[in-house]
Structure formats: C-alpha cells, structure tokens
Design brief:
Blueprint: E1 8-14, E2 21-22, E3 32-34, E4 43-51, E5 61-68, E6 73-88, E7 96-104, H1 106-116
Antiparallel strand pairs: 1-2, 1-5, 3-4, 4-7, 5-6, 6-7
Length: 131
C-alpha cells in the first residue's frame, strides 16, 4: 500500500512592497479556496487565530504556497483581503480571531487602474465637425 504524504502549506500576509509575515502556525486547517475557470473571481476563506493584528485592511496581500513532496512542485497563489471579520477573544486580551474572505489579484489591478483614473475631456471642449 502506497504511503501518502501531506502537502505543506505556508501562508504569508502583509502589504505589497513590504516583507510578508508568516502566519502559518495561527491558521487552522482545512483551508478553502477555489480556482474558477470562468468570469467569476477566484476566492478563498482563511481563518487566523490569536493574531495581534486588530484588523486586516482591504487589499492586504496574502500568499498561499502549497508544496508537495511527491511532485517537488511549489504552487503559489496570491490573493487580497476583501473583508475581515475579527473578534477579540477573550475580551481585553488584545488577541483577535479573524475570518478573512480573499479575492484574486485581478481586483488589485482594478484598484490600481481606478486610482490612476481615466479622465475624459468635458463635452464643451470637444469641437463638432459638420461634414
């Protein structure tokens, strides 16, 4: 009978452009994510227990790295925080349990595009040409 090895999963979280903090020991498993092949966004749900961070802001970067010993293959997915439900447990402990809803990188690109802005010329600045 073949012995199966468990995948090794590493979870890092932080702001883009900064070193990401490893929060793997604080994540209970199973971890849920979906890789959809249609127009829907890829998404994931992640729980983090007893974290010192009070709130993870939207668009905080989260990377999930899955390493399989059988294939010697690392698969890394990058997501961004869409929402965070945090509870201080027990109250006054300054430790928070988080339930994060994560979305794929496409939304980050849309945010960057909208911050840069698309500015159309006002209608009164456009000359009309009659032919």
């Amino acid at each position: 009978m073949k012995e199966y090895t468990q995948n090794e999963i590493t979870i890092r979280i932080g702001n883009p452009g900064e070193p990401l903090a490893d929060c793997t020991p604080q994540v209970p498993f199973p971890l849920k994510w979906s890789d959809l092949l249609d127009e829907q966004l890829d998404e994931a749900t992640l729980s983090i227990l007893r974290a010192k961070t009070e709130v993870f802001q939207p668009f905080t970067m989260v990377t999930l790295s899955v390493c399989s010993e059988e294939n010697d293959d690392d698969e890394t997915e990058t997501y961004y925080v869409a929402s965070d439900k945090a509870d201080e447990i027990p109250p006054g402990s300054e430790r928070y349990n988080h339930e994060l809803y994560l979305i794929e990188e496409t939304k980050w690109l849309e945010l960057r595009y909208s911050v840069c802005g698309i500015h159309k010329r006002p209608r009164q600045n456009v000359r009309r040409i009659n032919i």
